[in-house]
Amino acid sequence: MNILLVCEDYKFVLVEECPQVPTANASKTAREPYDCWIKANNKAKCFMLASMCDVLRKKHEEMETAYEIMESLKAMFGAPSEKAHLDAVRAFMNDKMKKGSLVKAHVLNMIDHLHDTELNGARIDEATQVGIILESLSPDFYEFVNNFVMNKRRSNLTELLNDLQNFESTNKRRGG
Q1: Contact, 106 vs 136, CB < 8 A?
Q2: Structure confidence by residue, pLDDT tens digits, 64-100
Q3: Which of 56, 68, 125, 175 could bond 63 through an S-S bridge, CB–CB 3.0 to 4.6 Å?
């Protein structure tokens, strides 16, 4: 829906209040912002209502503004449940790499868990993300983790993945 409203330049009605109703004898220039907002609001409401199922449309068709409709939809569907939030964080925190599995698959899986946590409203800073991933690694990576911590390294998830893959390939060549 946002794509359509942005494309048609109507999204502003979701964030801007309706201008004051101009007086009956107001000039065309004074009426223009109000008329523009009303026209955009009506079109945005039509787009929104047309994309809803019958039950939702019936509930929202009496609302005056697209903003009111959007706020109602946010209240109904916008907030993730507390259980979904906790389940996503728990999955990220508790996933452990199986000994002998590939580090790339594990880190990408952890990043997927991280995205789930963010979609469910959790915000985990980058240093903590890296720390949780380091803690989730198999014993094959203890040397890497110890060096990372001892040298007080900082990296983002992409750099961490690259470093872990390099360590993994070097260890395989050494037979470790």
Answers
A1: yes
A2: 999 999 889 888 887 667 888 889 999 999 999 998 8
A3: 68
